[in-house]
Amino acid sequence: MTGRVNLVNSSETELGTDANPLIIKNYSGASLATTAKQDEIITNQSNGTQVTKLKDKRNLIGFGASFSPLNELLEHSPLRLVGQGFIGTTLDSVAWSTIASGTGAVTLSGDSAATLTTGATANSSISLSSTRPARYMFGYANMFRSVVSTGDAGTANNIRRIGVDNGTDGLGFTWDGTAFGIYYKNNSTVTNITSGFNGDLGTTYTWSTTPRALEIVYFTAGFWFFVDGALLHTIALSTLTAPLTQNLSLPLAASNTNSGGSTTNLTLKIWNETVFRLGNEHQRPKYANITTNTTTVLKLGAGTLRKVIINSNGAANNTATIYDNTTGSGTRIGVIATATAVGGTFEYDLDFFTGLTIVTSSGSAANLTIVYD
Description:
By secondary structure, the protein is mostly beta strands. It has three domains: about 5-55, no CATH class; about 80-280, Jelly Rolls, CATH 2.60.120; about 285-370, Jelly Rolls, CATH 2.60.120. It is about 0% helix and about 50% strand. The strands form seven sheets. Strands 9, 11, 12, 14, 19, 20, 21 and 23 form an eight-stranded antiparallel β-sheet that branches. It is elongated, with a radius of gyration of 25 Å.
């Protein structure tokens, strides 16, 4: 079958067969870089009007393109928030932290992967997490992506997990003994789903030692879990009576834990692990004007510190201390000596994750404007 639809941007779409894929051309006849096979196109009739939509490559019928009232395509490039490969043979302690018991360990062998091993001591464990979380912004979805392999297809008295998790809240994939599936965690209560999957891979999934790409698309209105680009399971908003987790600004996490006296040395090899935001970081910032020596809590939770502007000088010993916290202590972002020339601007453009607090102190206060979101 061949059909033709004139588009509002003065180009035409020609729909073909599998042997003649869809080709988008402009009126000059120049072929653009978008092609799709006939079986990747959804066509409906509604009130006599044909609507043609390309399916998302992960077979998500509900995912489609959006347009502005001016018929402009709304498009955002994924933004990497946290994560990377594992370079060399030494774990980057600035980017990653570990907790081990018994003979549990993380090793890097120089092949850009990290391997979590339990060792042969009974009930050993090892966990790996990024030192900072991937900030979640309502209105955008995040995507977890990792390539992993295991030395076995699942073993009794062992649980392995990978995903995004801060110890209290999280979601990801799990090897629960010999069963592979997904999990989510709400206020430290863990729910495993290892059967009854509703995606395209069957109601259960048999893991093997072949490396697999694991992905999760998540935001408050839905959660999609993929194996090698195919949908394993989805948790729809309509099935929830409360948020799946209490927090979605979560760090990368992986763990390998033996129990029940197991001394089997089991592995979880992570080729890479990262989280992307499926959208940009642009939003209109807030501001606060501080004119006295005080503790000012500007935000509870994650955000972005854009800049600090000195409108008028403080005394020679006056300072402004910036904390990633909801109190005037803890993780310090920086200290500004406010005697810097009037009009001095300190560009930060970095994320904070717990909160934003400014402590101004000593001598005559400066006049500061804090720009953040």
